Amino acid sequence: MAQVYVRAPTKTRSSARFRAPLWIDALVFIAFIGLAYGLVGAASRWARPLTPNGSIDLSPWSLPRYAGLSTMRMAIAYILSLVFSIAYARIAVANRRAERVMIPILDILQSVPILSFLPGVVLALVALFPHSQIGLELAAIVLIFTSQAWNLAFSFHQSLTTIPKELSDAATIYRLNFWQRFTRLELPFGTIPLVWNSMMSWAGGWFFLMAAEQLTLGKQSFQLPGLGSYLQVAANAGNTGALLLGLGTLIVVIVLMDRFVWRPLIAWSDRFKVESTAGAAAPESLVLRELGRSRLINWIGRHVALPLGQRLDRILGQGPARSGAGETAAVPGERQAFRRVAGWLLLGLAGLALLLAIVDALRLFVQVTPGEWGQIGVAAGATLLRAAIALALAVLWTVPVGVAIGFSPKWSQRAQPLVQIFASIPALAIFPALLVFFLKIPGGLNIASVALMLLGTQWYVLFNVIAGTMAIPEDLREAAVVYKLRGWRRWRFLIIPAIFPFLLTGMITATGGAWNASIVSEYVTFGGHTYTTVGLGATIASSAGSGRYALLLAATVTMAAVVVTVNRLFWRRLYRIAEQRYHLD
Predict the structure, then answer these.
(1) How far, CA to CA in Å, does 107 sit from each of 81, 87, 98, 287?
(2) Residues 202-214: pLDDT tens digits?
(3) CA 539, CA 375: separation in Å to the nearest integer?
């Protein structure tokens, strides 16, 4: 039976002779102090009075502070995204009836552009905190959250639906309850794709950072100090020097994140590969190795993390055992009745909220003329065609490149930071330069919009393909060598079946990213001129800028309807194939 193979810890972690030098503990302590100081400083900034049209200093000396503020917003949004994604996917898998509703909702949420969220989010949070910056900061974090969460949720949902049947049966035989099943099976099995999709979600946050930190509602503009607003102001002012300094700072932050966060996480997550033999070569991280020898980290692990984990196991590990995936053992009648009443109550409240939302939407829909509905239909077809072309181009190059990187730990170490850099560069910062070129060739903005969609979609596919390739068990790779599978036969019988669920997740999230990127690719303001092409993105961007909320809602609902229809008729059928045929059983 396949098992979750855990690599044995190296001797340096257990032998006192190989303790890390004191300066490593000093660096860890300084990092903790710096983090605490940054959080206190950010909290004091949040409490300042609300100041629309805040000025952004383009001097190089402001960049470290702006980088820290943007990274803090990204980190808060990422933590919220991770918690939401794990809980959402787990609930969907545990209840198949709920899954039929929750996954289409996720399809809608990942495809709704950030500009459609922006007016309501900013207005609501600014009204909630009218005398401080808290509302604006929370609005930026929520908007960054919308560019991170859906990818993680799809990734963890895919992991839960492709757990090998023998591992699921073993969890049932040993009568693992909800908490035990989650911590011993589900979370470890989903760790590798979660780590790689976390990098993609983090890069997606950088991608839309400029829109999240520069919030505009009609004639009123709100700017938050950060790298995104710095790049936006530099681009609008045509200050090439400041723009290059901002991009250089962003690259430095990405490289530091890769070295001190993502590479250690990749090396740590390799222990959760589902295989029956140890891999020939595992990802390595100098930072992870040294942190494992740190006295301070080990003390925190022994006296804080371990007791906390044991306490959680004692509290949450006492529930009823699971009789199968998503099914509980017999529950007392009173508890069942209480759950049934609570479920119907929540369903009724959700239905009431939905009814009120539909009534408000209908009031706006009647303001949209038949001619405008016809234009929306044509725009939807144009954007759908561009998104399909961008996705096809993305798959053509990311699958072979991702498989090559995933099969080679050496290339993975070298290519990982480069991929993160290219995936994280905000499109709005480089698109004006691309636009100047594309406007000179036939096709103009139509080709340029496909190119920008490609910039926003290809990385979702690449990161998932790399994760899927790295998760291929070593014994399957050895079997392919023994049976002399080469060329197309190797792709047909090993690579494509192994990466198919990951590739499918990447393509679904990439499609949502393409629809989201349409708002900046089909409606571009550059050099005092506005360039537009037919598409739903252009309709949403123009209506949001002019305050035509009825047309904005109609275009957004149309986009969501098209995405859900495509997902239900095409992607979900492929998902069922992945669940039924491509398990590691």
Answers:
(1) 16, 17, 14, 38
(2) 877 887 777 778 7
(3) 9
| Residue extents of the structural domains in the chain | 63-274+298-330+367-581, 331-366
Percent pLDDT > 90 in the chain is: 5
- For residue 3, give the 3-state DSSP assignment: coil
The rounded distance, in Å, linking the Cα atoms of 438 and 535 is 18
Helix axes 63-94, 134-146, angle to 10 degrees: 60
Beta bridge partners of 215: 222
Residue identified by tokens 């960049």 is 63
Q: Cα separation of 438 and 444, whole Å?
A: 5
pTM listed for this prediction? 0.75
Query: Is 63-274+298-330+367-581 in CATH node 3.40.50.300?
Result: no
- As given in the structure block, the two tokens for residue 116 are 């459609």
251 contacts: CB under 8 Å, gap ≥ 6: 421, 425
Rounded Cα distance between 249 and 79, Å, is 23
> pLDDT at position 83, please?
93
Q: Is the dihedral of CA 238, 242, 244, 249 positive or negative?
A: negative
What angle, 0 to 180 degrees and rounded to 10, lies between the N-to-C axes of helices 286-293 and 22-46?
Answer: 100
Q: Which runs of E-coded beta strand occur in 282-407? A: 322-324, 327-328
Query: Which one of 13-22, 180-189, 331-340, 407-416 scores highest in mean pLDDT?
Result: 180-189
Three-state DSSP state, 216: strand
Q: What is the pLDDT of residue 385?
A: 92
Count CA atoms within 13 Å of residue 260 on its CB side. Answer: 9
Half-sphere exposure of residue 396: CA atoms within 13 angstroms, side-chain side: 7
User: Could you tell me which of 254, 219, 213 has the C-alpha nearest to residue 232?
Assistant: 213
How far apart are the C-alpha atoms of 422 and 455, rounded to whole Å? 9
Among left, alpha and beta (phi > 0; psi -120 to 50; other), residue 69 is alpha
82 pLDDT exceeds 90?
Answer: yes
Other Cβ atoms less than 10 A from the Cβ of 463: the count is 31
Crossing angle of helices 427-438 and 227-237, rounded to 10°: 30
What's the rounded Cα separation, in Å, for the pair 306 and 179? 16
Cβ burial, residue 280 (10 Å; 0-12/13-18/19+) = exposed
The 10 Å Cβ neighbour count of residue 55 is 9
Residue with tokens 């990311």, as numbered in its chain: 398
Pairing of strands 220-223, 523-526: unpaired
**What are the counts of helices (DSSP H) followed by strands (DSSP E) for the chain?**
28, 6
**Beta carbons of 42 and 317 less than 8 angstroms apart:** no
Backbone phi, psi, residue 483, to 5°: -85, 10
pLDDT value at residue 1: 39
